[in-house]
Amino acid sequence: MTRMRLDRRLLADVTPLRESPQFRRLWIGSTLSSVGSALTSFAVPLQVYEITRSSFAVGALGLAQMIPTIAIGLVGGSLADAVDRRKLALLTAVGSAAVSGGLAAQAFAGLRSVWLLYALVVVQSAVLAIAAPLRQTFIPVLLPPALLPAGMALDRIRFQVMLTAGPALAGLIAAAPHLGLRACYAIDVLTYAGSVYGIFGLPVAGRRPVAGRGPVARPGARAMAEGVRFVARSRVLAGAFLADLNATIFGLPVALFPAINAERFGGDPRTLGLFATAIGVGGLISAGLSGPVGSVSRQGRAMLCSVAVWGAAFAGFATVRSLWLTLGLLAVAGAADMFTVVFRGTIVQQATPDELRGRVTAADYVVGAGGSQLGSLEAGAVGSLTSPVISALSGGLATIAGAVLIGLALPAFLRYRALPSGHGASDAQPEPVSAEA
Questions:
Q1: pLDDT tens digits, residue range 51-85?
Q2: What DSSP state is assigned to residue 82?
Q3: Which side of the chain, N or C, has fewer Cβ within a 10 Å radius?
């Protein structure tokens, strides 16, 4: 009996799915849509590599994604704090489906234009810069504060399902003689029905003043600046954002995957699909065993440890030659990433009042997505100047060093304790740290 209770505590807490029908509907719909998006995320870099045979060209996709992410992300956050978030979510779902339709059309037409792919990726990233953080703002609205860590872990399971099923399925589809990359794009268009299904179940949200905090800010430069100032005043939020930037800029060698796959394993698309699938499997297993996450109080320290493990795993990935060791180390990286994201997401939502949630969540997305895209560019550029192996190895080691430096430079983040379960994000202050901080 004791062992059974221990096992249950290790498993992910599914209470949010049982107690909130709206959260359950959002989770199911988003999971379906995310798998389709993973097909496109697999297909675009592979199509660029097949056209150019250049790791730098693949890495440049990161730049094409980063520019609209930074330019649009904060604007979208201020908009989310001022309008009906549900209607805005529906508009972004329709926009994303339209872009996926454009990618499918160019594939079926047999076009081999890298610049067209870059242009479609730019539009896709602009829409996603609004849609992704917007979706996160609904989770603390649908769940009580005590269930927020469990809800964030379940949301990460959704993402890990995408990482696990999406690339593996995409690799099989891309290798099939009568399907190929065009089928990946077409299936992505169809799965946006899941996103619409989840959004229709959400409550109307946005444009509501909070007692004692004044009127809702109008979207624009002043509202964006207010969100940025809030983050800058909080050493805890700043630490979380810096830790994530460190991990994504230096320790994310995804742009090198096609070249390393071609060098070591013959360039088989099915093997390339296993790379991202291994990351997803590692994250999915750790998410499934995320029960103890809610009891971790020093979330800042835990996040830095997870970042260091992430960097070490990719450093090992750069040096091994065996396929099974390669996939195993990628799985370790995926497990570390799951904990990093859950701790960061919980810190951000707990430390942010609702009237600023859209802007701060958007800033969090800009940091995460922009860092990933910059990391792809950095990995591709270093890999072209040196070699893919040197790029991945140096990036992993730099990630470990960065985690240590952040802990030394921001002791308040290192000592940060999670808010008690009875406190909500609206109770959080600009510097929500324990007394010892």
A1: 998 878 887 887 888 788 888 887 778 877 778 88
A2: T
A3: N
How far are the Cα atoms of 162, 201, 370 from residue 28, in angstroms, in the given order? 12, 11, 27
Instruction: For domain 15-205+217-427, give the CATH number.
Output: 1.20.1250.20
- The dihedral region occupied by 436, where left means phi > 0, alpha psi between -120 and 50, and beta the remainder, is alpha
What is the C-alpha separation between 275 and 257, in angstroms, rounded?
A: 7
Is residue 347 a contact partner of residue 130, using CB atoms and an 8 Å limit?
no
Q: Which residues of 124-142 are buried (b: 16+ CB within 10 A; e: fewer)?
A: bbbbbbbbbbbbbbbbbeb
* 246, 409 contact by CB (below 8 A): no
What gap in Å lies between CA 412 and CA 427, rounded to an integer? Answer: 19
pTM over 0.90: no
Position 418, amino acid: A
Say if residue 264 is exposed, middle or buried (CB neighbours under 10 Å; 0-12, 13-18, 19+): middle
Q: Are 305 and 361 in contact (CB under 8 A)?
A: no
- Listed in sequence order, the DSSP H helices in 289-387 are 299-319, 323-350, 354-385
Q: Measured between alpha carbons, how far apart are the two ends of the chain, in Å?
A: 40
- Residue type, position 384, single letter: S
Burial tier of 275 (Cβ tally within 10 Å: 0-12, 13-18, 19+): buried
